[in-house]
Each structure stands twice: as C-alpha cells, then as structure tokens.
Inverse folding.
C-alpha cells in the first residue's frame, strides 16, 4: 500500500463528521461509507458512536453488514468508538436478539455499562506509548466485560479496558473524535498503513 491511506467513516448514523475532521487533520484521504461499493475504495474503516441497535438495523438493510464482516474476517482494519466498539464485539451482554455483531474483536461488551446519559463523564486517561494523558469523554459508554488473551489493553479506567487492540482492529469506549487531540486516530492510521 502507498503512504497515503484512504480511510472510510461509516456514515449511516451517529457522530461521523467529527471523525472525518480528525482524519482530515492527519492528512488522510477520507470517504463517507454508505453502500457496499464504497467499501471497495478504502484501506480501513471507522465505525462511529451513535445508537448500536439502530446502526445494526442499518447495516443489515444496506447490505453492508455481511460484506463488512467478510472483509474483517480477512484482516481489514477497523476502528470503533463507543457504539462502534459495541458493533465490533463478538458478544453483547444486553443487546437485542436481532442485533448483529461484526466479530472484529474477541471482546464481550455491555451497552451503557457506565450508566445512562446523566452518568456520562470525562477524565484524563493514560494510554500506552503516550507521554501525556489523553482527555477522554465517556458518553453512555459501553464496558468491556471479557476479552481474549490476545486483545491488547492500551488504557483502563477503574480496572476496565477502555482502549483495546487486536490485530488490525482498534476500539474505544470513549469518544476520541470529540476532543482536539488526534493521537488515538493516529494509532489507527498507523494500523491501516502497516496492514
């Protein structure tokens, strides 16, 4: 792959604009992904926060879910934040029976694990390889309840993993796109370029 990565941002629902702005700031070629054909033009995909059951329904309705799962099975780089992390799990504790999972990571998550909207919080977190803490926003954030041994934990809050990596998949409980700090997105760009 050339040095210029082309990264898609799933644009079916949720806060995808902020991810686009962060990736643009990192001089990445960015595409909004709404159809199966769009997936053929990118080297990696960001799945934004939003509402995971709605996102699941839209992935099924658009046909993107099946195609994306096949690409992920073949090592396609993907980065999910909040609801995006829920979608990437292989198990959702409190998901709806018809909610799909992309099986991008060997993690089990609980939606709204930290509580409802009024339980949202922000705090500085330490992230592996970062010299300075990252100011993280947790909005109706999911909790990782179980993870496989080969899932690398890059950051925790109160003993719970909040930023994890497994192969070419990266996921965060928090919203790195909502702060003026591009370092978490830089991790994903690096993953895409090395894939």
């Amino acid at each position: 792959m050339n040095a210029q990565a082309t990264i898609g941002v799933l644009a079916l629902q949720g806060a995808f604009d902020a991810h686009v702005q962060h990736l643009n700031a990192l001089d990445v070629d960015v595409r909004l992904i709404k159809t199966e054909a769009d997936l053929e033009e990118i080297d990696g995909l960001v799945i934004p926060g939003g509402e995971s059951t709605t996102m699941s329904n839209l992935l099924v309705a658009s046909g993107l879910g099946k195609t994306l799962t096949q690409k992920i099975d073949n090592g396609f780089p993907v980065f999910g934040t909040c609801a995006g992390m829920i979608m990437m799990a292989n198990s959702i504790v409190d998901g709806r029976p018809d909610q799909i999972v992309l099986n991008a990571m060997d993690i089990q998550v609980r939606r709204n694990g930290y509580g409802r909207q009024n339980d949202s919080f922000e705090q500085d977190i330490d992230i592996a390889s970062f010299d300075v803490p990252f100011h993280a926003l947790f909005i109706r954030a999911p909790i990782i309840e179980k993870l496989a041994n080969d899932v690398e934990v890059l950051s925790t809050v109160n003993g719970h993993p909040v930023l994890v990596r497994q192969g070419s998949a990266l996921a965060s409980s928090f919203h790195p796109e909502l702060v003026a700090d591009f370092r978490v997105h830089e991790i994903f760009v690096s993953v895409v370029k090395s894939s």
Summary: The longest helix spans residues 183-194. The helical segments are 16-25, 52-62, 64-73, 83-88, 183-194. The longest strand covers residues 160-166. The chain has one domain: 6-194.
